[in-house]
Amino acid sequence: MPVVMSSDQVARTIARIAHEIVERHHSLESLALIGIRTRGVPIARRLSEALAEIVKVDVPTGVLDITLYRDDLMRHPVGPQPVLRRTEIDFSIDDRRIVLVDDVLYTGRTIRAALDALIDFGRPRAIELVVLVDRGHRELPIKADYVGKNLPTSLQESVQVRLSEVEDRDEVVIEDAPDS
Amino acid sequence: MADAVVLRGGRVVDPANDVDGHVDVFIEESRIAGVGVDLILPEGVREVAVPDGCVVCPGLIDMHVHLREPGQEHKETIATGLAAAVAGGFTAVACMPNTEPANDEAGVTRLILERAADAGLARVYPIGAVSRGRAGEQLAELGELHEAGCVAVSDDGQPVASALLMRRALEYAGMFGMPVIDHCEDMSLADGGVAHEGFRAASLGLRGRPAVAEQILVERDIALACTTGAAVHIAHLSSRAAVAAVAAGKASGARVSCEVTPHHLALTDEELDAYDTRYKVNPPLRETGDRAALVEAVRDGVIDVIATDHAPHHYDEKLVEFDQAPFGVVGLETAVSVCLDRLVHGGVISLGRMVELMSVNPARILDVPGGGLSVGAPADLTLLAPDLPVQVDSTTFRSLGRNSPFDGRSFKGGVAATFVDGRAVFVNAAVSGADQLQIGA
Amino acid sequence: MPQTADTGRDAHSAGTSVLSTPAGLRTTDLLSIGDLSAEEILLILDTAEAMQEVGTRAIKKVPALRGQTVVNLFFEASTRTRTSFEIAEKRLSADTVNVVASGSSLAKGETLADTVRNLEAMAPDVIVVRHAAAGAGHLVAKLCKARVINAGDGMHEHPTQALLDALTIREHKGCFDGLRVSIVGDLLHSRVLRSNLLLLEALGAAVTVCAPATLMLPEAARFGVRATTSIDEAVDGADVVMLLRIQLERMQGHFFPSLREYFRCFGMTAERLRRAAPDAIIMHPGPMNRGVEIASDVADGPGSVILEQVANGVAIRMAVLYLLSGGQGG
After folding, report:
1. Burial class (CB in 10 A: 0-12, 13-18, 19+), B37
2. Inside any domain, residue A137
3. Which of A16, C136, C200, C285 has its CA 20 to 30 A from that of A2?
4. Inter-chain touch C223–B324, beta carbons under 8 Å
5. What is the pLDDT of residue A82?
6. Extended strands (E) in chain C
């Protein structure tokens, strides 16, 4: 179970991405962060804190649950429905620059669902994408604007991001997916 | 002599003649010619071995069935109903008058007897209507009905609601020796209910028929029987309170008899959970305490008769909302299995007592032949197979009705063969050695 | 099985925060609250809370049930419940069809079984059924493959009403354990009562029911509730006071002499309500008879959450439709 990012590396990576966001935007006035449940949410919150330290601006941060937009919802009637949790975006996204945040970029389907969901909330000026890990194997034409780490993987492997807000520690590991 | 048969080696249970043992039964010219060991038999008598474990008893009589003909032949015909009867071990049935038209005049009675003779299976004893059109208003011509062959009168399906009419019916039918059979239920209290009033109906949101509705009419009928000195028979007793009322009536010397159905002895309203209309019956399946009281009354003799209240319905009629479904279950083809399993194997009663409940007492109450294997009596016999494993499958029923609450259930005990007038009218192929029982055909 | 899409990862990495909730509903039909465990009830409430947010958006629609056909089969008039289901279905992008008794073949004497078999032949995914006969939903479920939601069957149950009541109670009171809930009105004929009793018992509330003796719940003790014919006793210390509708035709069955007398003996007035807890909430499943079971100043008063119940109805029905549309969990 190789650890590919330690707790320190996770922290440094998030700090680095915060700096990249600042570099790329002249002003953070119209910026908003939206974390995708589950692990995009703590990453977005950490980014928000980092931005507040760097530029002393509170960037509005929201939470997006993409469950109702999944493209596999009604296509696997054997399993129970995925658990739905609350979406919390208490600001208008109209004309904002939205930075969408997720932990792992893989097939791109979650991001597709997130884009569809965001469009239902309003009409942002632009949407950018932050991911902590890009593990490849895209099935849709989607590319991240900020990548913490590019991590070539095989399809048999699974990438697990652990964050202290959800689990007991920060780390990224590669596991062999159980064959079943 | 082709017409002479001796049934050898079986256990014979004939409580009317105080017989319970392994003896031979000699049948000659459609009649019982002797019961015992070392019978002196003429030459050429065919010897038939009773299959292992089988019991010979006087033919069972179901004194409460609905044959539906004339008028509702899509539910049952006299021929299919009687085929079901003999398959269930019954050599005779008494059929209720709620046909269309009602059996309230001799023409209908004669038609029923004619169709029964054509079927040539079980005997049929028609029960005439108390009132014209069973409307509860004017007495039917009970004298003519009696003459045509009716053995009792009833407005079954509903009670004789008017106490005055009930009094007159008891007095008038009593002249002809016919008992009045009453479906006891105060209809204003029943109030359109579809299930026993209690916790189950309350939680299922079904309107209840309270037990007190039955108790009130049972008590009224017993009081009227006392006043008139006539015989009343309470149909399908269902509640603890009604059992107590009958017991008190008997103790006071009233001429009251009563019956209970196998389904009320075996089932309770707990069956209703899935709104399965096969369990919708009137009187309704009641609570555990009521069922226990009925079983106890069978044991201690308060209950005289087990009768099926066989009430076939077309499957379409039962495939509706519970509220809309007609009341009734079929019972002819399962009664023996239920009674052997639950009552005899269940340790409630002896086989002899079961024969009293299903043969001796019905014959006595209706004053019809049968109920015993006396020399000279018609050779109406039922061969029980008390240890036969039976799984009820309604698709194999002879009855047109499939509305059995016992469908799919397993029982220990069944029927091996049924003989009417010394002739095999039913032989159960599932009983080994039964093939040689094909006699008199 | 290797991960084939990152959208599937929730199922592979359930966080510790959701360990107590079941993966889904075991039942494929919602005919009775008795079909649900306490955990499943809470799952529905949690899901409904998430669904509430959809109703606050500019575009109140999500694609979750895209391509699913839902038939609202209503044999009894019910503007409120049917509208609530229909809005819930549309917010989830299901295709909805309304079949109402007066406009259907029912008026032509077709049986429920034939009506349902004909609908089934057109392959709906969900049938929402409201019928005057108890157990009608059971019959529909027996006859078809579509998932069946009972929207009220005679005097039996109205499960989504109890669920929306529970959501409303939870929003105000936080939890159910030991909560004192008093239910007053026509207990005998109420399907809302039966669903609520099952639900409140499962979640641990202490329920008192109150009605005239003629409209009392039979064998109340076996339902696990305290029963009284005294309104003052029923209201005393209650955290939640739920009033049930008095059907005006009940006077014909000798259940009570007049509406005037009912109000005098059992109507919920501000005066009577003073015995309840100071922060008690007032609930009514609707439609209300003002001046019969409830005085207007109570219905419109500060403790009334009656319109919140209606609002929560949509979210609850979205949650139920969503969760039932999955495969069997557990």
Report:
1. exposed
2. yes
3. A16
4. no
5. 86
6. 69-74, 95-100, 126-131, 147-153, 180-184, 206-210, 226-228, 240-243, 281-283
The count of structural domains within chain A is 1
Amino acid at site C260: R
The residue of A68, A69, A142 whose CB has the most chain C CBs within 10 angstroms, and thus the best one to mutate to test that interface, is A68
The pLDDT of residue C253 is: 76
CA distance B51 to B416: 8
3-state SS string for A131-151: EEEECCCCCCCCCCCEEEEEC
Whether there are 3 or more C-beta pairs closer than 8 Å between B and A is no
Half-sphere CA count of B202, side-chain side, radius 13 A: 19
Domain that holds residue A104: 3-74+84-176
Contact at CB, B324 and C194, closer than 8 angstroms: no
Q: Are B328 and B309 in contact (CB under 8 A)?
A: yes
Q: Can you tell me the distance from the alpha carbon of C228 to that of C197, in angstroms, rounded to the nearest whole number? A: 15
Domains in chain B, start-ordered, CATH in brackets?
Answer: 4-56+377-437 (2.30.40.10), 59-366 (3.20.20.140)
Q: Where are the beta strands (DSSP E) in B298-409?
A: 305-306, 381-391
CATH code, domain carrying C63: 3.40.50.1370
Residues C88 and C137 in one domain: yes
What is the average pLDDT score of chain C? 90
What is the spatial distance between Cα A74 and Cα A76, in angstroms, rounded to a whole number? 6
Among B138, B72, B128, B70, which residue's Cα sits nearest to residue B103? B128
b vs e for B345-384, b when ≥16 Cβ sit within 10 Å of the residue's Cβ? eeebbebbbbbbbbbbbbbbbbebbbbbbeeebbbbbbbb
- Which chains neighbour B (Cβ–Cβ under 8 Å, 3 or more pairs)? C
Nearest to B202 among C111, C132, C218 (CB): C218
Judge whether A79 lies within some domain. Answer: no
**Phi and psi for B388 in degrees, rounded to 5?**
-70, 125
For B306, the token pair is 């087990």
Mean pLDDT of C41-54: 96
Q: Which long-range contacts (CB under 8 A, 24 or more apart) does A81-85 make?
A: A81/C24, A81/C322, A81/C323, A81/C325, A81/C326, A82/C10, A82/C11, A83/C10, A83/C14, A83/C18, A83/C21, A83/C23, A83/C43, A83/C46, A83/C47, A84/C46, A84/C47, A84/C50, A84/C51, A84/C319, A84/C322, A85/A37, A85/C46, A85/C50
Side chain identity at residue A111, one-letter code: I
Name the active-site residue from B156, B221, B309, B380.
B309
Which range is least confidently modeled, A64-78, A162-176, B117-131, B190-204?
A64-78
SS3 of chain C: helix, strand, coil, percent, to 5: 45, 15, 40
Distance from CA of A55 to the nearest CA of C (A): 31
The pLDDT confidence band at residue B430, using thresholds 50, 70 and 90, is very high
Shortest distance between the Cα of A49 and any Cα of chain C, in A, equals 23
CA atoms B68, B69, B70, B72: torsion sign: positive
Structure tokens at A142: 């989607």
Q: Render pLDDT for C238-250 as a digit per residue (tens, 0 to 9).
A: 999 999 999 877 7
C19 and C153 belong to one structural domain = yes
Per-residue pLDDT at B315 exceeds 60: yes
**Same-domain status, C53 and C19:** yes
3-class secondary-structure state, position A33: strand
Choose, out of A41, A73, A102, A109, the residue to mutate when testing the contact with C (most C CBs < 10 Å).
A73
Verify whether the Cβ–Cβ distance C15 to A38 is below 8 Å: yes
Q: Please identify which residue in the block is written with the tokens 């501000």.
A: C270
Does the distance separating the beta carbons of C219 and B202 come in below 8 Å? yes
Q: State the Rg of chain A over Cα.
A: 16
Q: B309 catalytic, yes or no?
A: yes
Where in the sequence is the domain holding C85, given as residue range(s)?
5-157+313-324
Residues in chain C: 330
Residue among B274, B319, B323 whose CB faces C133 most closely? B323
> What letter represents residue B357's amino acid?
L
